[in-house]
Design brief:
globular, 302 residues, alpha/beta, 8 strands
């Protein structure tokens, strides 16, 4: 019998990773209202937007306005993705609590996503980390395509280890390892985490699963067995990857919370308020969200 943790931290990435892949641009006022609802639901961490150039992700072109307008609740970390020094300046100006940097474990995806090779990316990110630390910000690193690349296929475990070690060497506080195209399975997660634990600090790792093939919750269970207790998720299962065709939504926060709470694992999140926040963004997007909990809620209302 496995010893499950008493508490798991769920980092909500819906306002950034969820909305960046939507075809419509959600109005600024609705983004702010949604983030405020998420703050009331009991999260301790919400990724609110991304300070990337609007040409690349027009859905998040109002990042500065959003960051300046949300109602900040004490005890909640409000984070944003930054691609470079210019993005960091905007994040600092709007007093974001934590900045996230990002890159891929596969070179081809990294070039498609950032327009640089992996080796060319490290100096850019190192400058961001250094400046962010000088500004008193914590820094998170995202490593995409850790379980598979849409262009290269399998990604070697030691390649992911190398990228993570370089990020930790820069001074990042946590690395989120991503299954960007949703190809991971429980056995693969077990094998890779077994290897990664040999070189990487397990208490500074988070997992970022996509549910493209319905494996996300199963992969969470395996990760829990390896003492991973931080997971990224998006309410309703929103999201995907703009540069990975067919990569459907993130692990759904509401499904994850349902599972964890019934296993006796605390998250600090209020399920009723989570439903209210999910219903709000579902109405804004005018579409049914893919999570199982949203499906149940929609049927109950009929």
């Amino acid at each position: 019998m496995f010893h499950w943790p008493d508490h798991v931290m769920i980092k909500e990435v819906g306002p950034r990773d969820g909305l960046q892949n939507e075809k419509i641009e959600v109005p600024f006022e609705d983004k702010v209202a949604w983030i405020n609802l998420l703050s009331e639901a009991g999260y301790s961490y919400i990724e609110i937007s991304s300070f990337v150039h609007p040409k690349w992700i027009p859905q998040l072109k109002d990042a500065r306005q959003v960051a300046s307008s949300i109602e900040r609740k004490p005890g909640v970390t409000y984070a944003a993705l930054v691609p470079n020094r210019k993005g960091l300046e905007a994040a600092v100006d709007t007093d974001v609590d934590e900045v996230s940097i990002f890159m891929s474990a596969s070179d081809t995806h990294n070039k498609k996503n950032i327009n640089k090779s992996i080796e060319e990316t490290f100096p850019v990110l190192e400058e961001v980390v250094k400046e962010a630390k000088l500004e008193g910000k914590s820094v998170r690193g995202y490593v995409s395509t850790a379980f598979g690349c849409p262009y290269e296929g399998d990604v070697a475990t030691d390649q992911v280890t190398m990228v993570c070690e370089r990020l930790f060497g820069m001074g990042v506080d946590e690395v989120s390892i991503g299954d960007t195209i949703g190809v991971a399975n429980p056995m693969q997660v077990d094998q890779k985490l077994t290897e990664w634990k040999k070189s990487l600090p397990i208490d500074q790792l988070a997992m970022h699963f996509h549910n493209t093939r319905g494996m996300a919750l199963a992969n969470v269970l395996v990760s829990l067995q390896h003492n991973i207790t931080t997971f990224d998720a998006a309410l309703g299962g929103l999201g995907g990857c703009p540069y990975a065709k067919g990569a459907s939504g993130n692990l759904a926060t509401d499904d994850l919370v349902y599972m964890l709470h019934r296993m006796g694992i605390e998250t600090g999140i209020d399920e009723q308020k989570l439903k209210e926040a999910g219903n709000f963004i579902q109405n804004v997007l005018n579409k049914t969200l893919p999570s199982h909990q949203m499906q149940v809620m929609n049927k109950e209302r009929v």
